[in-house]
Amino acid sequence: MTVTFLMDGKEVTAQDGQTLLDVARENGIEIPTICFHEATTANAVCRICVVEVEGMRTLQPSCIVKAATNMKVQTRSEKVVRARKTILEMLSATMDLSEAADIQAMMKEYGARDERFPDAVRRESDIKDDNPMYIRDYSKCLLCWRCVQVCADDAQFTYAINFEGRGYETQIGTFFDKAIPQTTCVLCGQCVGVCPTGALKPKREFLLEKGKTPAEISVMNTGRKQRKPR
Ligand code: SF4
Ligand code: FES
After folding, report:
1. pLDDT single digits (tens) 153-185
2. Which listed CATH number (3.40.630.30, 1.10.510.10, 3.10.20.740, 1.20.1300.10) goes with 1-122?
3. Whose atoms come closest to the Cα of 34: which ligand?
4. Which residues have CB under 6 Å of ligand 2?
5. How confident is the model at residue 230 (pLDDT cuts 50, 70, 90)?
6. Does 192 sit in the ligand 1 pocket, CB within 6 Å?
7. Which of 27, 140, 143, 158 gives 20 to 30 Å between its CA and that of 127?
8. What is the rounded average pLDDT of the residues 112-123?
9. What's the pTM?
10. Ligand nearest to the CA of 143
11. What is the DSSP code (8-state) at residue 19?
């Protein structure tokens, strides 16, 4: 079954079950996303993809709201732009976005200011370097949920990481904060691959940034010096 509705004043058609984001993308309409990832189940936690739907009191997250007949959707109304800008400013005030290039680009596009919420509490965390594959820096984590999902039912079925704590204290972690080698983690790297902010980073990249040479990294990994070429 197909549904027909208006998106930014243009008549569009969707297959039953398609989200507003799906339809926008099919029609070349740009809607920004952060927590959404094709490989994970959408949970609409960041709200950057909100759109205005006539008759609905609040803005709607397009990554989970399904298209319906006769909807009238505005993807870039004044209200939508203001909401996206505020979301970006809140993110910027509470976490380290220095390695989140896509989000930085959005901030520029929406004119979001770093200093909008000067009294906000920033997420602080020591870098967790406890395994040979990747480091975890949760000061850069925006709790998008992607890593937890690929570790669980969306891909790996390993369940090594999950949400911990409540409210402002919520963070991603292992059970009882155990080091990665003491969990069910198989070092598949999928969590690193879906992290949008650099909170999870390959260990090699981390060490190169710290000034280690490839030869030094090789010694750290294998315990053996690299042979000189003959
Ligand atoms: S560590 Fe990365 S992928 Fe996981 S919740 Fe935080 S930002 Fe998202
Ligand atoms: S991308 Fe839709 S809520 Fe995050």
Report:
1. 999 999 999 998 888 788 999 999 999 999 999
2. 3.10.20.740
3. 2
4. 33-36, 44-49, 61, 63
5. low
6. no
7. 158
8. 92
9. 0.90
10. 1
11. B
